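agent> fetching stored inputs for the NAP docking request
agent> found them:
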Amino acid sequence: MEELFGLRGNVALVTGSTRGLGEVAAKALAKAGADVVVCGRNPGDLKRVSDEIRKIGRDSEGLLLDVTSKASIEECVARALRRFGRIDILVNNAGVNHRVPVLDFPEEKWDLIIDTNLKGYFLTAQAVVPQMIERGYGKVINISSILGGVGLPNQVAYAASKGGVNQITKVMALEWAKLGVRVNAIGPTYFETDLVKQLRNDPERFNFINERTPMGRWGYPPELEGIVIFLAAPASDFITGQVIYIDGGWTVW
Ligand SMILES: NC(=O)c1ccc[n+]([C@@H]2O[C@H](COP(=O)([O-])OP(=O)(O)OC[C@H]3O[C@@H](n4cnc5c(N)ncnc54)[C@H](OP(=O)(O)O)[C@@H]3O)[C@@H](O)[C@H]2O)c1
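agent> prediction call returned; pasting tokens
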């Protein structure tokens, strides 16, 4: 099992790992043996999550990162490389949303969502992947969404960003396939985090999501752990360019 799923000796960098699904992913990678660079904009949360990872028994550092700024990405990655010497696993996860109808959607929210959820993934991969290519091995995991494949009202920028994430996953996978870098995406359904608190607290939306999901419920954040470890580990070495939905069957019909 260690040979297939163990991550000892690997260094992972997870964007937006100060809370929510990014925090779950960062801790899952640590439990599988990786040292983890925790990234986000809140110093208190950076310290909390990296302290908790050290308690798991792995090395960790919390580094400030704003993925809407190329300079911030480059500085964060340079600091991570100075501290750990390598990044073997990149989880592009930092994401935001804003839910209003297309005709009311503010331009600045469109720009923020695309800059964070799509351009941020692209720029972070540009900063991290060259040193993976130099070593001939690396794993990039892009956190997409069911909205990368299906539409829902009121999420025009978010759906555009996640459709874009699915597409950049394929292009990156093809360009780096012979260079040892695997690139895959995970498409979660609704999981209870800050991002979807508003929907969770709206009984009509909460029930719509339960009824629309073949398995009849939202995801539990720990249910993300297995797929993150799998895509980071040698067990998935012949898989690239895929979007794997973790959605209780939502995208099947
Ligand atoms: N929860 C769901 O139901 C769900 C479903 C499908 C897909 N997803 C995807 O999963 C990912 C994580 O979502 P979540 O639900 O965990 O959201 P969340 O609880 O709101 O957490 C978002 C994370 O992203 C970080 N972040 C936001 N903007 C950033 C920026 N400009 N630079 C750096 N970090 C930034 C936040 O850090 P700060 O502390 O700095 O704000 C936080 O750590 C997103 O890509 C989202 O689209 C979530």
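agent> quick read of the result: Residues 15-16, 18-22, 40-42, 45, 65-68, 93-96, 116-117, 143, 145, 188, 190-191, 193-196 surround NAP (CB under 6 Å).
agent> awaiting further instructions
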